[in-house]
Design goal:
Length: about 300
């Protein structure tokens, strides 16, 4: 019964995550015409800072102390750039393309883990990287289809998310999860506020609240909820179960884009995404087989 209950919990948490990720993308689309992107990101970071700070204040855990602030700063500078690139892509590209290109993040993580963490590049990891970048070529079809600069920006965002993942792995050796999440938002809040003041395109806040207040609230809540649900899914199940469910984001968001924004269901998109997903799932299965198995209880 334990396995069945864990599976049900993973499915429920992932259903919440998929819904929240899709809601975030839709909310960005709705708010972006009226609010500059840096202000959108500042609203998300401000909400995260307030909510996580309140949770820490009311809780009895280890608190929000940052033992490795330079690494926090480096991690969140990369994450801020990645967040901006992803949000920018959502406003210009079909939603399915943005999510498919974002799925190259595990391939980038593999390369960065070899370079930064000195992890071994196994055959299955190399295959995942190769299939990932082959999938990108199928989706973008350079030389055949017009290559949009926004696509390259989303790829850079995926690289930024990958660096964030590697830095997170380093931070978890000394920092709590709550501390990492708090400083992620607390550091990016002033970065986005300053960038928003330096660039043109100021928004009238009363107008935004009056006409786009619901979408902005959905954006802030869904942004937090997506990561909360995903984290809980990983707590209840192995990556080999969670990640394939996470890839359901792609067909879901493609249907959302088709239904709400008239975006075409491009077969090249699904073919390229299938290559990316197959490489990652293959590597996960190989890694699971290589992992040391627990000894029998009677040993």
């Amino acid at each position: 019964m334990r396995v069945a209950s864990d599976l049900a919990a993973v499915v429920l948490w992932m259903a919440g995550a998929l819904t929240a990720f899709s809601a975030t993308a839709i909310a960005v689309r709705e708010v972006a015409p009226a609010l500059p992107l840096f202000d959108i990101l500042a609203a998300r970071a401000g909400t995260g800072t307030a909510v996580i700070g309140l949770v820490a204040l009311l809780g009895r855990g280890p608190g929000l102390r940052a033992r490795r602030m330079p690494l926090h700063l480096l991690r969140n500078l990369a994450h801020a750039v990645a967040n901006y690139g992803w949000t920018y892509g959502v406003t210009l590209l079909p939603l399915g393309v943005v999510f498919a290109l974002e799925f190259t993040t595990p391939a980038w993580v593999t390369l960065l883990a070899v370079l930064i963490l000195r992890e071994r590049l196994t055959g299955s990891r190399a295959a995942a990287v190769a299939l990932g970048f082959l999938g990108v070529l199928v989706i973008l079809r350079p030389g055949i289809a017009a290559l949009q600069p926004a696509s390259l920006i989303v790829l850079v965002a995926a690289l930024g998310f990958a660096f964030t993942a590697v830095a997170t792995k380093l931070l978890t050796r000394t920092e709590t999860t709550l501390s990492i999440l708090f400083w992620m938002n607390a550091i990016q809040l002033p970065l986005n506020l300053v960038a928003g003041r330096l660039l043109p395109g100021k928004a009238a806040v009363p107008f935004v609240v009056q006409h786009h207040g619901v979408a902005l609230a959905v954006l802030c809540v869904a942004g937090l909820a997506s990561h909360w649900c995903l984290t809980n899914a990983y707590k209840r199940g192995d990556a080999i179960l969670v990640i394939p469910l996470d890839f359901l984001r792609l067909p879901l968001i493609a249907v959302v884009g088709w239904q709400f924004y008239g975006e075409a269901l491009d077969p090249w998109l699904f073919a390229g995404a299938a290559l990316i997903v197959s490489g990652i799932v293959y590597n996960l299965r190989r890694e699971a087989r290589r992992a040391p198995r627990p000894l029998p209880s009677g040993a």
